[in-house]
Amino acid sequence: MDSFEFNKIAGAVLGTALLVFGLNELSKIIYHAPKPEKQGFAVEVAEAAATGDAAADTAAAAPTESLGTMLASADATKGQAVFKACAACHDGSKGGPNKVGPNLWGIVGRMHGSHEGFAYSDAMAALKDKPWDYEALNTFITSPKTAIPGTKMGYGGLKKDADRANLLAYLATLSDSPVPFPAP
Fold this sequence. Notes:
Blueprint: H1 3-30, H2 54-60, H3 67-72, H4 76-86, H5 122-125, H6 134-142, H7 144-147, H8 161-173
């Protein structure tokens, strides 16, 4: 191979590299995406017990104070921040669509497995005569698979009492006539 042939090959390789890097920089200018303040969502996953006893997991996650007391000091604004993780699968707007999970507008007081247009699991549909009160929601949010075995909800649960109370306070606001909190 003579030097002219080598120069053509090297020029083609370098020209291609320059084009790729140039297009990359141009795309950054055209499609500017600012970085979020906080990266991602913290999703807490329950550790599996050494014995595999689901009852022990539920007992360990039981709140240390009554639900009424926790809700009395709950902050719906902080609950809205917790709900952002839920919003990946649920919509909370009035008349909003079902997503992977059902719409949560008016969830407090609504019957289990009753939202129109959503295909519930058999386990959830079997509870259709029971309302979602604060106790039921608290238990379900703590560990969905333990609370209702056979549910479609794949979320691992929200273990912190304060986060659950804040989320319940926010869910209470998603209604035309919010259900009052239980007495402390």
